[in-house]
């Protein structure tokens, strides 16, 4: 009720103040309150800007996900001052178990990740996303739920107009789009010329699961390639179970996951006495990162909306948090007083994205295409069970903790294919 009153007041105020030469109600409007949007709002509000964080959903809201927070995500949460809060609620895993069969199953240790945390946390997005959003609000951002953004335009006076379904537009100096894999707004704006290639994944939750430990499990037998199945413990007896593929598979992933749960020998053992506590849900994943799609002179695009998802692991929360920081740095540097250095904001952000991700993600795409094939993957997993160098290379490639070229060095290739 209090929220509704505040929102109505903001809209009336905004209506009275705009359009034309009046000051903007907000410096920046961030569209989408997933990790990318909320983190951007946090950095900008902490930097002293007036920020509105909009989402079509009311929070807390669920997001179909594996709920894994990688070492890179944990580093960003530490920088944001959120890690203690997250650790209190999350389940800690100290290794990743790779599974090709009952005989080829082994843990990969996460230590020596070039200064990154040596563990993974698993926390359902229903809780995680709301914690990041609340952190943005505590820093001074204003949240508007049920705010479905249909279009963003620029008025003749240079202000940016955010057009909402069934409501008055909001005006601001700059917009940030953080709408995740949902690319409709980006296409309507011409920021994406065509629908992006889509990857697909699905997940559900179980309680009373047997045989869980402090590792997350990735399994490759009986799943479509390139892709994998997973079991991510959310506690010693509960887990997020899912599968995903790096292409637009005609097989529906919820259907495939249902079949795996019923038939996969490993899952059948684990879930023998378990109870499913949530419906199976599928969602798209975008891995089509390109700095050219990072916005224009009045819009920046962050997180999965700019295609930032790792094409080997499918994780995107870490990239969402990292790109939020890069966008906020460019905005805080460019928005000085009344002068809006739009071109420099856009250029600085695009350059920072290209520097951080272009090389790493290009090699990750190559590694995915080369290794995620029947025959090659079995060979890699079987050899890595015995060869520490290979296990290290896999971890580094997964988490970007060293040069991803490691997957293509003569030593790595010899370890896999040598006699
Ligand atoms: C099944 C599955 C498993 C995954 N597992 C993992 C994992 O274990 N670890 C990991 O790191 N990543 C994982 N990912 C990827 C991860 O979920 C995403 O990369 C991440 O959520 C991207 O964050 P984001 O903030 O960019 O977008 P999102 O989290 O998708 O947030 C976008 C927000 O924008 C809002 N929105 C969209 N359109 C509009 C609009 N027009 N107006 C207003 N609001 C709008 C939505 O309501 C949503 O709240 C998984 C993905 C899938 C599908």
CATH class of the largest domain: Alpha Beta
The residue fraction in helices comes out at 25-40%
Work out the number of β strands: 21
Gyration radius, rounded: 22 Å
CATH topology of the largest domain: FAD/NAD(P)-binding domain
Number of helices: 13
Query: Approximately what portion of the residues adopt beta-strand conformation?
Result: 15-25%
> What's the CATH H-level homologous superfamily of the largest domain?
FAD/NAD(P)-binding domain
Structural class: alpha+beta
What small molecules does the structure contain?
Answer: flavin-adenine dinucleotide
List unreliable stretches of 5+ residues: 9-22
Assign the CATH architecture of the largest domain. 3-Layer(bba) Sandwich
Tally of individual domains = 2
Kindly report the average pLDDT value. Answer: 92
* Head-to-tail CA distance between termini: 70 Å
Shape: globular
General description of the model:
It is a single chain. This protein is an alpha+beta fold and 419 residues long. It has two domains: 2-63 and 126-195 and 287-364, FAD/NAD(P)-binding domain (3-Layer(bba) Sandwich), CATH 3.50.50; 198-284, D-Amino Acid Oxidase, Chain A, domain 2 (2-Layer Sandwich), CATH 3.30.9. Helices cover 38% and strands 22% of the residues. The chain has 13 helices and 21 strands. It has helices at 2-17, 35-46, 71-79, 83-89, 125-138, 184-188, 253-263, 265-270, 317-334, 342-371, 376-386, 388-399, 410-417, and strands spanning 26-31, 51-54, 68-69, 91-93, 95-99, 105-109, 120-122, 142-144, 149-154, 160-164, 170-177, 199-207, 215-219, 227-233, 239-245, 275-276, 281-285, 295-296, 299-301, 335-336, 339-340. Strands 1, 2, 8, 9, 10, 11, 18 and 19 form an eight-stranded mixed beta sheet that branches. Helix 2 packs parallel to helix 5 (125-138), helix 3 packs parallel to helix 9 and helix 9 runs antiparallel to helix 10. The longest helix is centred in the C-terminal third of the chain and has 30 residues, at 342-371. It is globular and about 70 Å long. The termini are far apart. The relative contact order is 0.15. The model is unreliable at 9-22 (pLDDT under 50). Flavin-adenine dinucleotide (FAD) is lined by residues 31-37, 54-57, 63-68, 70, 147-149, 178-182, 185, 201-203, 242, 244, 283, 285, 303-305, 309, 314-318, 320.
